[in-house]
Each structure stands twice: as structure tokens, then as C-alpha cells.
Amino acid sequence: MKTGFEPGLVREVSVTVTEEMCPAFDGVVVHWVYSTWSVAHHFELAARKVLAGFLDPHEEGIGAHLSIDHLAPCPVGRTVRVVATLVEVTTDAHPRVICDVNAYDGDRLLATGQQVQVVMNKEHLKRYIERS
User: Fold this and answer.
1) Helices (DSSP H) in the chain: which residue ranges?
2) Which domains occur in the chain, in start order?
3) DSSP letter, residue 19
4) What is the pLDDT of residues 16-38, one digit of tens each?
């Protein structure tokens, strides 16, 4: 990984809640609010932004863990700001990049959690996927 990849690094994603982001089961929207699975998607995007600019050409990150506590609803039409903060990079054989992630509607905390990516050599990752 490139230099400067240190705890405290912050990246953000902003999205406007749309109908497609609402929880729907069997094609029926059950609540006109930001779904937990949309939170998960945006947590992943924000955490990926933390890592992306620091990967060397031979490296790739792969998701290993995601936790979410969805604390409050957010209606369609509102803007959600998702903030990922790098909290740790382990020194394992395959480094783990650990980000704390929070989603906000203005100042109101909507969700909090953590996302972990494992950094691997692209060729090793390719062989690992092919074995699956």
C-alpha cells in the first residue's frame, strides 16, 4: 500500500434516498425509508473510497466483514451522508483495513458500524477465487 494510509483518514459518500432504496419484499415496498441493505451498500462504498487510492497496482481489497446498527429511519427524498474513517490497518500476511462507518441525515445519526477489507496480491486473490 502507498504511503499516507494511516488511521484517521476519512472518506464520504452522499446519496439522496430514492424509492429503489426502500425495503421491499416480493416487490412490495413495506416502508418508504432508507433500507438497511442500502445502508450496507453505502457503507461498503464509503469504506472502499478509504482504501482505493492507496492500493498499489498489484493489490486488491476484498470485503471481509460488515456490521450495521440501523438506529433511525430516513424518508425518501432526504440526503444521507455516509462517513468512513480508517481506524486500523493490521500487519497480518494479508493486511486487514478496518473502518468505522456512520450514516447521517443532517446531524442525526442513522446508522453506525464497521467494515473490514483484506488487502491481497491480485494474482493470489485470482487463484483463491478460482479454487472456490
Assistant:
1) 36-52, 122-131
2) 10-131 (3.10.129.10)
3) G
4) 999 999 999 999 999 999 999 99
